[in-house]
Amino acid sequence: MASLRVAVIALVFANILALAIWKGWLGGSVSHGEPERLSNQLNPEKIRLVVELPHPVAQPVVAPAPLAESVPPSVPVADAGKPAAPAPVPAPVAPAPEAAPPACVAFGGLSSEQAAELSARIAKAGTGFRIAESRSGAPSSWWVHIPSLGTKEGAERKAAELRSLGVADLFIVQDAGQNQYAISLGLFKSEVAAGRQLDALKGRGVRSAQIATRGAGALRVEVRGPSDSLSSLASDLSENMRGASRFECAP
């Protein structure tokens, strides 16, 4: 009887132990079927959303340039470590000489032939001169003279005749033109003075002398240029411009 009671008690404890194991009261992970297994696997409170980030694009790796590449093309690689040669010092520039101040010389009472000859000689002298030509309307002087005799020999014979009459103040015009080989007997600023000279010549027996106006329709030529070269040029021109007047003008 006692053994039966022990067996019953042992059976009860075995059932209780089996129930505890089945329920997991003893800490086991015994599954009670497919629903409970899914419940253990899906834990909503443990779910975390993971955002997939784009993979960064791999950048190509650029190798550093060799040291020889940093040297300018004009410098050899072998000389890269040497100090650069100093730049050549430019030679000093000599200051330009100062230009001569401008000047102006005018020739008045010229005939057309004299004006043309004067312009040709100035043009031949160089390019640094400028010529301005104008024509006057009123007489600037009165010329007492004997008209051209056509040849040098005829002019010299007439001059010798005049000297024999006591007329010493005379000269033979040598310039080319209509008055070449004429005999000049005086140039006067007024018509009255020219008339007195003509009367005096007639008193000595000179009958072929006459008065001509100068400047009425005569030409005036102004020459402008550097003062140093113009001074010598004007002196040369004056020697061959008989009967013309020379004076300064505004440059």
How many β-strand stretches?
Answer: 8
Query: Hey, roughly how much beta strand do the residues contain?
Result: 15-25%
The overall pLDDT average reads 76
CATH level 3 topology of the domain at 100-140 and 215-251: Alpha-Beta Plaits
CATH superfamily membership of the domain at 100-140 and 215-251: ACT domain
* Order of secondary-structure elements: HHEHEEHEEHEEHE
Number of helices: 6
For the termini, the CA-CA separation is: 167 Å
Uncertain segments are: none
Principal-axes shape call = rod-shaped
Classified by CATH, the class of the domain at 100-140 and 215-251 is Alpha Beta
CATH architecture of the domain at 100-140 and 215-251: 2-Layer Sandwich
User: Helix amount, in percent?
Assistant: 25-40%
* Rg: 66 Å
Major sheet summary line = 4 strands, antiparallel
What does this structure look like?
The protein has 6 helices and 8 strands; from the N terminus they run H-H-E-H-E-E-H-E-E-H-E-E-H-E. It is of the alpha+beta class. The longest helix is centred in the first third of the chain and has 22 residues. The N and C termini lie far apart (167 Å).
What is the topological layout?
Blueprint: H1 2-23, H2 34-41, E1 102-110, H3 112-125, E2 130-135, E3 141-146, H4 152-164, E4 171-172, E5 183-188, H5 191-203, E6 210-214, E7 219-226, H6 227-239, E8 245-248
Antiparallel strand pairs: 1-7, 1-8, 2-7, 3-5, 3-6, 4-5
